From TrEMBL:
InterPro entries: Aminoacid_DH-like_N_sf, NAD(P)-bd_dom_sf, THF_DH/CycHdrlase, THF_DH/CycHdrlase_cat_dom, THF_DH/CycHdrlase_CS, THF_DH/CycHdrlase_NAD-bd_dom
UniProt gene name: folD
Domain Tetrahydrofolate dehydrogenase/cyclohydrolase NAD(P)-binding: 141-290
Protein's recorded name: Bifunctional protein FolD
Top-level lineage group: Bacteria
Residue ranges constituting the Tetrahydrofolate dehydrogenase/cyclohydrolase catalytic domain according to the UniProt record: 5-120
Family: Belongs to the tetrahydrofolate dehydrogenase/cyclohydrolase family.
GO biological process: L-histidine biosynthetic process; methionine biosynthetic process; purine nucleotide biosynthetic process; tetrahydrofolate interconversion
Binding-site positions, NADP(+): 168-170, 234
NCBIfam families: PRK14186.1, PRK14188.1
Function summary: Catalyzes the oxidation of 5,10-methylenetetrahydrofolate to 5,10-methenyltetrahydrofolate and then the hydrolysis of 5,10-methenyltetrahydrofolate to 10-formyltetrahydrofolate.
Length: 299
Protein backbone atom coordinates (compact mmCIF):
# COMPACT_ATOMS: atom_id res chain seq x y z
CA UNK A 1 0.00 0.00 0.00
CA UNK A 2 1.34 3.40 -0.96
CA UNK A 3 2.50 6.07 1.48
CA UNK A 4 -0.17 8.74 1.90
CA UNK A 5 1.61 12.07 1.45
CA UNK A 6 0.32 14.33 4.22
CA UNK A 7 -0.04 17.75 2.58
CA UNK A 8 -1.56 19.25 5.71
CA UNK A 9 1.52 18.36 7.76
CA UNK A 10 3.98 19.63 5.14
CA UNK A 11 1.91 22.81 4.74
CA UNK A 12 2.16 23.37 8.51
CA UNK A 13 5.95 23.12 8.23
CA UNK A 14 5.98 25.68 5.40
CA UNK A 15 3.71 28.08 7.31
CA UNK A 16 5.89 27.73 10.43
CA UNK A 17 8.98 28.54 8.34
CA UNK A 18 7.20 31.57 6.85
CA UNK A 19 6.35 32.77 10.36
CA UNK A 20 9.95 32.31 11.53
CA UNK A 21 11.16 34.21 8.47
CA UNK A 22 8.67 37.03 9.11
CA UNK A 23 9.75 37.30 12.75
CA UNK A 24 13.40 37.59 11.66
CA UNK A 25 12.64 40.16 8.98
CA UNK A 26 10.79 42.27 11.50
CA UNK A 27 13.55 41.96 14.12
CA UNK A 28 16.39 42.67 11.67
CA UNK A 29 14.84 45.22 9.29
CA UNK A 30 11.62 46.37 10.95
CA UNK A 31 9.70 45.07 7.91
CA UNK A 32 6.36 43.27 8.24
CA UNK A 33 5.40 41.25 5.12
CA UNK A 34 2.12 42.57 3.72
CA UNK A 35 -0.40 40.73 1.55
CA UNK A 36 -3.56 41.98 -0.14
CA UNK A 37 -6.16 39.42 -1.15
CA UNK A 38 -8.83 40.60 -3.58
CA UNK A 39 -12.09 38.78 -4.29
CA UNK A 40 -14.79 39.86 -6.71
CA UNK A 41 -18.23 38.35 -6.21
CA UNK A 42 -19.61 35.71 -3.88
CA UNK A 43 -18.49 32.34 -5.26
CA UNK A 44 -18.72 30.16 -2.11
CA UNK A 45 -15.54 28.13 -2.75
CA UNK A 46 -13.55 31.30 -3.51
CA UNK A 47 -14.85 32.89 -0.31
CA UNK A 48 -13.59 29.91 1.70
CA UNK A 49 -10.14 30.01 0.05
CA UNK A 50 -9.79 33.77 0.51
CA UNK A 51 -10.79 33.58 4.17
CA UNK A 52 -8.28 30.79 4.65
CA UNK A 53 -5.51 32.85 2.99
CA UNK A 54 -6.18 35.88 5.19
CA UNK A 55 -6.29 33.68 8.32
CA UNK A 56 -2.97 32.00 7.47
CA UNK A 57 -1.37 35.37 6.73
CA UNK A 58 -2.36 36.58 10.19
CA UNK A 59 -1.01 33.36 11.73
CA UNK A 60 2.31 34.13 10.04
CA UNK A 61 2.32 37.62 11.59
CA UNK A 62 1.83 39.31 8.20
CA UNK A 63 0.00 42.57 7.60
CA UNK A 64 -3.06 41.25 5.77
CA UNK A 65 -5.79 43.15 3.96
CA UNK A 66 -8.80 41.67 2.23
CA UNK A 67 -10.75 43.51 -0.46
CA UNK A 68 -14.21 42.08 -1.06
CA UNK A 69 -15.71 43.62 -4.19
CA UNK A 70 -19.27 43.24 -5.46
CA UNK A 71 -19.87 40.85 -8.38
CA UNK A 72 -20.76 43.80 -10.66
CA UNK A 73 -17.52 45.69 -9.93
CA UNK A 74 -16.17 47.10 -13.20
CA UNK A 75 -12.84 46.02 -14.61
CA UNK A 76 -11.71 49.66 -14.42
CA UNK A 77 -12.45 49.78 -10.68
CA UNK A 78 -10.51 46.55 -10.10
CA UNK A 79 -7.56 47.83 -12.14
CA UNK A 80 -7.62 51.03 -10.13
CA UNK A 81 -7.49 49.09 -6.84
CA UNK A 82 -4.55 47.06 -8.14
CA UNK A 83 -2.80 50.28 -9.11
CA UNK A 84 -3.20 51.49 -5.51
CA UNK A 85 -1.88 48.18 -4.11
CA UNK A 86 1.08 48.26 -6.53
CA UNK A 87 1.99 51.67 -5.12
CA UNK A 88 1.49 50.74 -1.45
CA UNK A 89 4.89 50.09 0.21
CA UNK A 90 3.22 48.09 3.02
CA UNK A 91 2.01 45.49 0.50
CA UNK A 92 4.52 42.94 -0.81
CA UNK A 93 2.09 40.44 -2.31
CA UNK A 94 -1.12 40.93 -4.30
CA UNK A 95 -3.48 38.05 -4.99
CA UNK A 96 -6.63 38.34 -7.07
CA UNK A 97 -8.75 35.26 -6.43
CA UNK A 98 -9.75 33.38 -9.60
CA UNK A 99 -12.11 32.86 -11.30
CA UNK A 100 -13.21 36.44 -11.86
CA UNK A 101 -16.73 37.26 -13.12
CA UNK A 102 -17.12 36.90 -16.91
CA UNK A 103 -17.30 40.64 -17.61
CA UNK A 104 -13.73 41.09 -16.32
CA UNK A 105 -10.71 40.17 -18.45
CA UNK A 106 -8.63 38.05 -16.06
CA UNK A 107 -5.55 38.28 -18.27
CA UNK A 108 -5.61 42.09 -18.23
CA UNK A 109 -6.05 42.11 -14.47
CA UNK A 110 -3.18 39.67 -13.84
CA UNK A 111 -0.84 41.61 -16.13
CA UNK A 112 -1.63 44.83 -14.23
CA UNK A 113 -0.09 43.45 -11.03
CA UNK A 114 3.48 44.60 -10.34
CA UNK A 115 5.54 41.45 -11.20
CA UNK A 116 7.54 42.02 -7.98
CA UNK A 117 4.29 41.67 -5.99
CA UNK A 118 2.81 38.87 -8.13
CA UNK A 119 2.89 36.20 -5.42
CA UNK A 120 0.59 34.02 -7.57
CA UNK A 121 3.33 33.85 -10.21
CA UNK A 122 0.88 34.38 -13.07
CA UNK A 123 2.41 37.56 -14.60
CA UNK A 124 4.23 37.10 -17.95
CA UNK A 125 7.49 38.23 -16.33
CA UNK A 126 7.31 35.47 -13.74
CA UNK A 127 6.08 32.90 -16.27
CA UNK A 128 9.02 33.83 -18.51
CA UNK A 129 11.53 33.61 -15.67
CA UNK A 130 10.30 30.16 -14.72
CA UNK A 131 10.33 29.06 -18.36
CA UNK A 132 13.93 30.18 -18.77
CA UNK A 133 15.09 28.58 -15.53
CA UNK A 134 15.37 31.84 -13.53
CA UNK A 135 13.79 30.08 -10.58
CA UNK A 136 15.76 32.11 -8.03
CA UNK A 137 14.05 35.37 -8.94
CA UNK A 138 10.68 34.14 -10.29
CA UNK A 139 7.52 33.82 -8.28
CA UNK A 140 6.31 30.30 -8.93
CA UNK A 141 2.54 29.59 -8.92
CA UNK A 142 1.56 28.23 -5.52
CA UNK A 143 -0.03 24.91 -6.50
CA UNK A 144 2.89 23.63 -8.60
CA UNK A 145 5.42 25.04 -6.10
CA UNK A 146 3.65 23.17 -3.29
CA UNK A 147 3.45 20.00 -5.37
CA UNK A 148 7.22 20.15 -5.92
CA UNK A 149 7.82 20.29 -2.17
CA UNK A 150 5.67 17.17 -1.74
CA UNK A 151 7.62 15.41 -4.50
CA UNK A 152 10.89 16.49 -2.88
CA UNK A 153 9.82 14.89 0.41
CA UNK A 154 9.49 11.52 -1.38
CA UNK A 155 12.12 11.68 -4.14
CA UNK A 156 14.61 14.31 -3.01
CA UNK A 157 15.47 17.54 -4.78
CA UNK A 158 17.30 16.10 -7.80
CA UNK A 159 15.00 14.10 -10.06
CA UNK A 160 17.74 13.06 -12.53
CA UNK A 161 16.93 9.76 -14.21
CA UNK A 162 13.23 9.93 -13.35
CA UNK A 163 10.41 10.29 -15.86
CA UNK A 164 7.52 12.61 -15.07
CA UNK A 165 4.16 12.87 -16.82
CA UNK A 166 1.96 15.90 -16.18
CA UNK A 167 -1.64 15.35 -17.27
CA UNK A 168 -3.08 18.81 -17.94
CA UNK A 169 -1.67 21.83 -19.77
CA UNK A 170 -3.15 24.79 -17.92
CA UNK A 171 -1.12 27.95 -17.43
CA UNK A 172 -1.79 27.82 -13.68
CA UNK A 173 -0.74 24.23 -12.97
CA UNK A 174 0.25 21.97 -15.89
CA UNK A 175 2.80 24.16 -17.68
CA UNK A 176 4.55 25.57 -14.58
CA UNK A 177 4.59 22.09 -13.04
CA UNK A 178 6.34 20.73 -16.11
CA UNK A 179 8.90 23.56 -15.97
CA UNK A 180 9.62 22.89 -12.30
CA UNK A 181 10.07 19.16 -12.89
CA UNK A 182 12.39 19.97 -15.78
CA UNK A 183 14.38 22.38 -13.59
CA UNK A 184 14.78 19.48 -11.12
CA UNK A 185 16.25 17.35 -13.97
CA UNK A 186 13.28 15.02 -14.53
CA UNK A 187 12.49 13.89 -18.07
CA UNK A 188 9.09 15.48 -18.58
CA UNK A 189 6.07 14.88 -20.83
CA UNK A 190 2.94 17.04 -20.79
CA UNK A 191 -0.16 15.04 -21.68
CA UNK A 192 -3.72 16.21 -22.26
CA UNK A 193 -7.13 15.14 -23.50
CA UNK A 194 -5.86 14.62 -27.05
CA UNK A 195 -2.81 12.56 -26.11
CA UNK A 196 -3.07 9.07 -27.63
CA UNK A 197 -2.96 6.15 -25.19
CA UNK A 198 -3.01 8.31 -22.06
CA UNK A 199 -3.12 5.29 -19.71
CA UNK A 200 -0.06 3.78 -21.41
CA UNK A 201 1.88 7.04 -21.20
CA UNK A 202 0.97 7.54 -17.53
CA UNK A 203 2.21 4.01 -16.80
CA UNK A 204 5.71 5.10 -17.85
CA UNK A 205 5.85 7.82 -15.19
CA UNK A 206 7.96 7.61 -12.04
CA UNK A 207 6.21 10.86 -11.08
CA UNK A 208 2.62 11.27 -12.25
CA UNK A 209 0.88 14.63 -11.79
CA UNK A 210 -2.86 14.75 -12.49
CA UNK A 211 -4.25 18.24 -13.11
CA UNK A 212 -7.17 17.83 -15.47
CA UNK A 213 -10.22 18.63 -13.38
CA UNK A 214 -11.94 15.30 -14.15
CA UNK A 215 -13.06 13.36 -11.08
CA UNK A 216 -11.09 10.11 -10.52
CA UNK A 217 -9.99 9.93 -14.15
CA UNK A 218 -6.62 8.34 -13.38
CA UNK A 219 -7.21 4.65 -12.62
CA UNK A 220 -5.02 2.15 -10.81
CA UNK A 221 -3.84 0.53 -14.03
CA UNK A 222 -2.56 3.93 -15.26
CA UNK A 223 0.01 3.94 -12.46
CA UNK A 224 3.52 2.49 -12.64
CA UNK A 225 4.30 0.31 -9.60
CA UNK A 226 6.15 2.43 -7.03
CA UNK A 227 5.32 5.74 -8.74
CA UNK A 228 4.82 9.02 -6.88
CA UNK A 229 1.32 10.28 -7.72
CA UNK A 230 0.42 13.94 -7.16
CA UNK A 231 -3.29 14.66 -7.43
CA UNK A 232 -3.97 18.34 -8.09
CA UNK A 233 -7.69 17.92 -8.81
CA UNK A 234 -10.37 19.14 -6.41
CA UNK A 235 -13.78 17.98 -7.62
CA UNK A 236 -17.02 17.95 -5.68
CA UNK A 237 -19.18 14.95 -6.55
CA UNK A 238 -22.49 13.62 -5.32
CA UNK A 239 -22.22 11.29 -2.31
CA UNK A 240 -25.66 9.66 -1.90
CA UNK A 241 -24.05 7.14 0.51
CA UNK A 242 -23.71 10.07 2.96
CA UNK A 243 -27.35 10.98 2.66
CA UNK A 244 -29.63 12.75 0.23
CA UNK A 245 -28.09 15.77 -1.47
CA UNK A 246 -24.70 15.21 0.18
CA UNK A 247 -21.42 15.71 -1.68
CA UNK A 248 -17.76 14.89 -1.16
CA UNK A 249 -14.42 16.02 -2.58
CA UNK A 250 -12.37 13.77 -4.83
CA UNK A 251 -9.28 14.35 -6.91
CA UNK A 252 -8.45 13.53 -10.51
CA UNK A 253 -7.05 10.18 -9.32
CA UNK A 254 -8.99 7.14 -8.15
CA UNK A 255 -7.17 7.19 -4.81
CA UNK A 256 -7.80 3.65 -3.53
CA UNK A 257 -6.95 2.04 -6.87
CA UNK A 258 -3.81 4.16 -7.31
CA UNK A 259 -2.67 3.57 -3.72
CA UNK A 260 -2.69 -0.18 -4.32
CA UNK A 261 0.01 0.26 -7.01
CA UNK A 262 1.90 3.50 -6.32
CA UNK A 263 4.77 4.15 -3.90
CA UNK A 264 3.26 7.39 -2.61
CA UNK A 265 0.05 9.32 -3.36
CA UNK A 266 -1.43 12.64 -2.27
CA UNK A 267 -5.00 12.40 -0.94
CA UNK A 268 -7.85 14.79 -1.70
CA UNK A 269 -8.60 16.56 0.54
CA UNK A 270 -5.39 16.98 2.55
CA UNK A 271 -2.78 16.75 -0.20
CA UNK A 272 -1.88 19.52 -2.64
CA UNK A 273 -4.72 21.91 -1.58
CA UNK A 274 -3.24 22.98 1.77
CA UNK A 275 0.14 23.46 0.09
CA UNK A 276 -1.38 26.09 -2.24
CA UNK A 277 -2.16 28.39 0.65
CA UNK A 278 1.11 27.64 2.47
CA UNK A 279 3.14 28.55 -0.64
CA UNK A 280 1.30 31.86 -0.88
CA UNK A 281 2.71 32.67 2.57
CA UNK A 282 6.16 31.55 1.44
CA UNK A 283 6.00 33.70 -1.71
CA UNK A 284 4.84 36.75 0.27
CA UNK A 285 7.72 36.38 2.71
CA UNK A 286 10.16 36.00 -0.20
CA UNK A 287 8.76 39.18 -1.77
CA UNK A 288 9.19 41.14 1.46
CA UNK A 289 12.75 39.82 1.90
CA UNK A 290 13.67 40.81 -1.65
CA UNK A 291 12.27 44.30 -1.13
CA UNK A 292 14.24 44.62 2.13
CA UNK A 293 17.46 43.36 0.50
CA UNK A 294 17.57 40.26 2.70
CA UNK A 295 18.33 36.76 1.38
CA UNK A 296 14.97 34.91 1.50
CA UNK A 297 14.78 31.44 3.07
CA UNK A 298 14.55 28.50 0.68
CA UNK A 299 11.29 26.61 1.12
N1 LIG B 1 -5.49 33.63 -7.54
C1 LIG B 1 -5.66 32.30 -7.40
N2 LIG B 1 -6.87 31.76 -7.59
C2 LIG B 1 -7.01 30.42 -7.46
C3 LIG B 1 -5.93 29.59 -7.08
C4 LIG B 1 -4.67 30.20 -6.91
O1 LIG B 1 -3.63 29.53 -6.61
N3 LIG B 1 -4.57 31.55 -7.06
N4 LIG B 1 -6.12 28.25 -6.83
C5 LIG B 1 -7.46 27.70 -6.77
C6 LIG B 1 -8.14 27.72 -5.43
N5 LIG B 1 -7.28 27.70 -4.24
C7 LIG B 1 -6.64 28.82 -3.90
O2 LIG B 1 -6.94 29.90 -4.27
C8 LIG B 1 -7.30 26.60 -3.33
C9 LIG B 1 -7.98 25.45 -3.61
C10 LIG B 1 -8.05 24.42 -2.65
C11 LIG B 1 -7.42 24.54 -1.44
C12 LIG B 1 -7.53 23.50 -0.36
O3 LIG B 1 -6.88 23.61 0.66
N6 LIG B 1 -8.35 22.49 -0.55
C13 LIG B 1 -8.62 21.50 0.49
C14 LIG B 1 -10.08 21.14 0.47
C15 LIG B 1 -10.93 22.34 0.74
C16 LIG B 1 -12.40 22.00 0.89
O4 LIG B 1 -12.74 21.26 1.79
O5 LIG B 1 -13.19 22.54 0.09
C17 LIG B 1 -7.78 20.26 0.26
O6 LIG B 1 -7.49 19.95 -0.90
O7 LIG B 1 -7.45 19.62 1.25
C18 LIG B 1 -6.72 25.69 -1.18
C19 LIG B 1 -6.66 26.70 -2.11
C20 LIG B 1 -8.38 28.44 -7.72
N7 LIG B 1 -8.23 29.86 -7.63
Amino acid sequence: MAEKIDGRKVAEDVVAAAKTGADRLKAEKGVVPGIAVVIVGTDPASQVYVASKSKKAKECGFHSVQHELAADTSEAALLSLIGDLNADPAIHGILVQLPLPDHIDSGRVIQSIDPDKDVDGFHFINVGKLGTGETDTAFVPCTPAGSMILIERVRGRDLSGLTAVVVGRSNIVGKPMANLLLAANATVTIAHSRTPDLPGLCRTADILVAAVGRPQMVKGDWVKPGATVIDVGINRIAAPERGEGKTRLVGDVDYDAAAAVAGAVTPVPGGVGPMTIAMLMANTLVSACRRAGVEPPRF
